[in-house]
Specification:
single chain, 8 helices, 21% strand
């Protein structure tokens, strides 16, 4: 049964679906049937496996909903056993708009950290397997590229193009999606100019305020490799703190 459970976990992650895995971590008394039991609860409520007790499974099944929603593990203690419930999350996708020096480093480091990278640029010599061997490549106009994506809570959008107008175009699209994270490179003047223009177009400040601008944690980064570390560190922090709806947390910053 365990092999079937782990095969199903792999399948769900590749499909971009969430689940919760309940594992017996402690037995009290003589309930040896619990010892190696696992129960997988899918996001739609369906189950695979067993932990050996209908009563306990009912409580675990109910708790799995919050584990999946909040993306945080928990331990449930019963008279006969302790159950560890952990979220099973899809492989996170990072879409990097722009294929310059910073993008190269971000893609490399993000891949090591467990993200699946997609590079978008209108220059075939830049959005290439030679420059980004670990990533998927989309070469075309930004309008064509953004039309291909359904950015959801498993999507992280990085905007590091070579032109402010291109940055604005991608940001206009990104803030109207449910992307889990949106970050744009740039200093105070650029950020204020672009956000003011988008507000003038009717995009709400609530949507603009969830964007990380300037992008990355403030670690004093200067070199492309250092900037990439700062960016990916921010992605990891966002990924691990537990999911919140994109409009429920303000992430907008205007410091240069």
């Amino acid at each position: 049964m365990e092999l079937d459970v782990f095969d199903e976990i792999q399948r769900l992650r590749q499909l971009g679906q969430k689940a919760a895995l309940a594992t017996v971590v402690r037995i009290r008394g003589a309930e040896s049937g619990f010892r190696t039991s696992k129960l997988l609860i899918r996001e739609d409520g369906s189950r695979l496996g067993s932990i050996g007790s209908d009563a306990i499974e009912a409580d675990v099944w109910a708790a799995a909903e919050s584990v999946i929603r909040e993306e945080k593990s928990r331990i449930m203690k019963f008279e006969t056993a302790e159950i560890f419930i952990e979220p099973i999350l899809p492989v996170p996708r990072i879409i990097i708009f722009g294929a310059g020096h910073i993008a190269i480093q971000v893609s490399k480091i993000a891949t090591i950290a467990g993200f699946r990278s997609t590079i978008v640029d209108d220059r075939p010599e830049f959005a290439s397997a030679e420059r980004f061997p670990e990533a998927e490549h989309i070469c075309g106009t930004l309008g064509e590229a953004t039309a291909q994506f359904q950015a959801d809570e498993n999507t992280y959008v990085i905007i590091v193009t070579r032109d402010n107008e291109e940055d604005k175009h991608v940001l206009r699209w990104a803030v109207q999606t449910n992307a889990r994270y949106i970050g744009m490179i740039g200093g105070r003047t650029k950020i204020q100019s672009i956000t003011s223009e988008l507000e003038g177009e009717g995009i709400s400040r609530d949507r603009l305020e969830r964007v990380n601008m300037p992008i990355g944690l403030d670690i004093g980064a200067v070199l492309p490799e250092e900037i990439a570390v700062a960016i990916v560190a921010e992605l990891i922090h966002n990924r691990r703190e537990g999911f919140r709806h994109p409009l429920s947390k303000k992430l907008y910053r205007t410091s240069s």
